[in-house]
Amino acid sequence: YFDVSRPWLQRVLAGEGRRTLKAVDGVSFRIPKGTTLSLVGESGCGKSTVARLVVGLYRPTRGRVLFDGIDLEQARAMADQRRRMQMIFQDPYASLNPRWRVRDIIAEPIRAFGLIEGGAAQQRRVGELLSQVGLSPLDGEKFPHEFSGGQRQRISIARALSSNPEFLVCDEPTSALDVSVQAQILNLMKDLQRRLGLTYLFISHNLAVVRQISDRIGVMYLGRLVELAPAETLFEAPRHPYTRALMEAIPDLDMTGRQRIPVGGEVPSPISPPSGCPFHPRCPLANDRCKAERPALIPARGTPETVVACHAVEEGRDGAAFVTMNQR
Length: 328
Ligand code: SF4
Prior knowledge:
This protein is α/β, with parallel strands linked by helices.
């Protein structure tokens, strides 16, 4: 996942300094059943690490993940609990075994969890799953290379659904696809959520993509959650300067009447994150307090159901400062 050409990552790989890298720190959220929470942020912000922690691919060094009230450590030990949560990966090219027919790829979790006895019944179920994701039951006889990128992601979704899960963790499931195909996959996922009552944790670097599918959106920066809000509230009234900067990067988002916030620079190295607020080296609103004190995630005054980690928002100086910048 990480871009190994990055100088800071090369230093980590070389073991320089042997310091602890906190990929994720202090992130806390709940996802009500049948809803979608999306996590967004630039590459390296920790969102994919959260996804892997949530499905138990990584173990947290501190803190807990609860799934339906059960600690994930215990849940992973129970086959029926593992069946209830599945993951869809970014790259449908890499996540499907090229030597297996599609029917065997989709049937594998059914066999692994012992869900359906008998070959004929399993094949009927595979046919149903293929129809559910918009493919033909006859496609089960083909191999992955015979499909387009969008079709392969449909096969990945069918495989994830084959264990009758209730919770899907989707790690950038559309980022390897063309824009028009992305929209088709997002529509399919929304439709499946409605029909099957699924709950999603959706990971993306693209705010425009998650807008379509999310009930709530969390924005991450350098391993921390900096803003969490209902999707429409986030687009109508983004509060954190970093969220505002991400909005600016959406080409066709109507910014009429909104104050723009230019943000330059690169995401700092997580090996030696900046003091205080980790966003301060890039933030036009930073002051001395920001350099010294890390802001807590607290309710944003004036924006219901939004929590934000920013001293400027807490002090009520975010709006005034934007006006000043725009007038320059
Ligand atoms: Fe900017 Fe300070 Fe808010 Fe951090 S706490 S985002 S540096 S204003």
